[in-house]
Design goal:
By secondary structure, this protein is mostly helical. Helix content is 81%, strand content 0%.
Length: 129
């Protein structure tokens, strides 16, 4: 649950900071592309946190496997959205992919931070698998 919240908050904060920074620099922030990428990144973080929310947290092995599945889901959702925009010739342009790449890096870092805390909170295995 913590990973979903951290990732989603990071997506919103990075998008707001990026839009503000581009406006200060006098460059166009491409708001439709930025906001669409933010929504996709938030959705990816929510979907990535689902395996951790559904796993039995008494097993650190199951928790680690759910965390790995969550990071794979995160990658596939964002890469799939980028592919749909590029191959579908949707009018968001290449700036959507740039926003998506920046949000992927930032949300992955936040997601993994939340995942690490979740794995560390799991009880030790005591020699059992």
């Amino acid at each position: 649950m913590r990973a979903m919240i951290l990732g989603s908050m990071t997506a919103v904060i990075v998008t707001a900071a990026g839009i503000s920074g581009l406006k200060v620099a006098g460059l166009p922030p491409h708001l439709p592309a930025a906001l669409t990428a933010m929504v996709v990144a938030v959705l990816a973080c929510i979907l990535a946190g689902m395996p951790l929310a559904l796993v039995d947290r008494r097993s650190p092995v199951a928790t680690a496997q759910a965390a790995l599945l969550g990071t794979v889901i995160h990658l596939l959702v964002l890469a799939g959205a980028g592919g749909i925009v590029i191959l579908g010739r949707i009018s968001l342009g290449p700036t959507f992919v740039y926003w998506l790449a920046a949000l992927y890096a930032a949300t992955l870092a936040a997601l993994v931070g939340g995942i690490i805390r979740t794995i560390h909170a799991a009880p030790p295995m005591d020699g059992k698998i």
